[in-house]
Design goal:
45% of the residues lie in helices and 18% in strands. It has 188 residues and is an alpha/beta fold. It has one domain. Helix 4 runs antiparallel to helix 5 (93-107) and helix 6 packs across helix 7. The radius of gyration is 17 Å and the shape is globular. The protein starts with a helix and ends with a strand.
Length: 188
């Protein structure tokens, strides 16, 4: 298996090639960078260096979109964080997980929040990196996120995916969920 740095270099090469190579589909400009959740801090360091190279060596604008920030903003708008925390104490964890899932799926769909951040960005100069997906666990799995954004944005977008690779296209979110084989983007 390739090292973390080697996979980041492959991603960098594919993002900066004259013809974008992260996806076979023009309307699905997404890639997934899979890593073991135990490597979180190493990944943050390496991604920081990667972002610097994209900006300085390749002239790319890089927008980091924190899925955690979008989740907390959506929860605050819909139910309030204090109310959510109080609800966890009174109603339990499962009910709280259901509430967060409902907010991110129906009330403030996470895919729409991401699209809103990226829809007017220049796909020739911009690269988006979706960070902090681990904050969504266990309330929201990322498998539907990229699929729901299909055709809605043109900006090359990389999802930093904490989980386990199973086979060539199966991903287990946080290494514990059942493997999802519905991912079409290239997995690094």
């Amino acid at each position: 298996m390739l090292s973390l740095r080697d996979r980041i270099r492959m991603l960098e090469d594919d993002l900066t090639a004259p013809e974008l190579r992260i996806s076979a589909y023009h309307d699905l400009p997404f890639a997934i960078f899979q890593y073991d959740p135990k490597e979180e801090f190493e990944v943050r360091t390496e991604i920081g260096l990667f972002v610097t190279r994209l900006r300085r060596q390749h002239g790319k604008d890089v927008m980091e979109v924190s899925l955690a920030d979008l989740m907390f903003q959506a929860i605050e708008r819909e139910v309030g964080l204090e109310s959510l925390f109080a609800g966890e104490q009174s109603d339990g964890l499962e009910r709280t997980i259901d509430t967060v899932h409902n907010v991110l799926t129906d009330l403030q769909p996470l895919d729409e929040l991401v699209v809103e951040q990226l829809k007017h960005k220049d796909s020739k100069t911009m690269v988006a990196i979706l960070t902090h997906a681990e904050a969504l666990f266990p309330a929201f799995r990322t498998s539907a996120l990229l699929e729901k954004m299909h055709g809605k944005i043109r900006v090359p977008t990389v999802l930093l995916y904490p989980g386990a690779l199973e086979g060539t296209v199966g991903l287990r979110f946080m290494g514990v969920c059942e493997a999802d084989h519905n991912y079409r983007p290239k997995i690094y």
